[in-house]
Write a structure and sequence with these properties.
The chain has nine helices and five strands, in the order βαβαβαβαβααααα. By secondary structure, it is of the alpha/beta class.
């Protein structure tokens, strides 16, 4: 399931509320899907585009909090909005500390839910854009020669060309050539930008 404009996925065991939520999303032009349990959600095809997950806290079998923890362990958790029939402060604190973007108590205002979902989808869109940019940066770094990667790493540590030349037992001219190659292939317009790229990739401490 994919939608370029984003979508919302509900996990709610109350059939009437599921239908009401789907109708609400349809009324504001949003793509939505609903499941009655955590297992139904996990068995369904994964959403591939930007999305937000709206979970009831109390569900048959595994709870919404259990699903939140499971997704976090997998490292691919979308933004989560929790719904609860009870104003349980410890539960809401636990959910928010674990990364939930909102905790709404039933009955909630439709606009509050819509606002939370829009916020979640935009957050997921930004996260995915950042992951794509980092993946592209990693491909550029991997395209460098081993020596250019080493020079980039040492430059990012703040070492001068002369120091790098001494460490690698090469001439300063050779260091400049490799540094220039790294800047061109990485698309860095300045030395400071190259250093920021190295920091983003986590290659300052050790070559990869």
């Amino acid at each position: 399931m994919a939608d370029g404009n984003g979508c919302v996925v509900f996990v709610e065991d109350d059939p009437a509320l599921r239908e009401a939520l789907l109708a609400l999303m349809d009324s504001v032009g949003m793509t939505a899907k609903a499941y009655g349990s955590v297992q139904e959600y996990l068995d369904a095809p994964a959403v591939t585009g930007p999305h937000c997950l709206v979970l009831d806290v109390r569900l048959p079998g595994r709870s919404g909090l259990d699903l939140q923890a499971e997704l976090a362990r997998g490292g691919a958790s979308p933004p989560i909005v929790f719904l609860s029939g009870h104003a349980d402060v410890p539960m809401s604190v636990r959910a928010m500390k674990a990364g939930a973007i909102e905790f709404l108590v039933k009955p909630f205002r439709d606009q509050d839910l819509i606002d939370a979902i829009h916020h979640g989808i935009e957050e997921d869109r930004r996260r995915r854009a950042g992951q794509t940019a980092e993946a592209e940066l990693r491909l550029r770094f991997d395209s460098l020669t081993p020596r250019a990667r080493e020079v980039m790493r040492l430059v990012a540590q703040g070492l001068l060309n002369k120091q790098i030349a001494g460490m690698l037992d090469v001439s300063e001219i050779t260091v400049k050539v490799h540094r220039g190659q790294a800047m061109r292939k990485m698309g860095a317009r300045s030395l400071a930008e190259l250093v920021r790229m190295a920091d983003q990739l986590g290659v300052c401490a050790a070559d990869r």
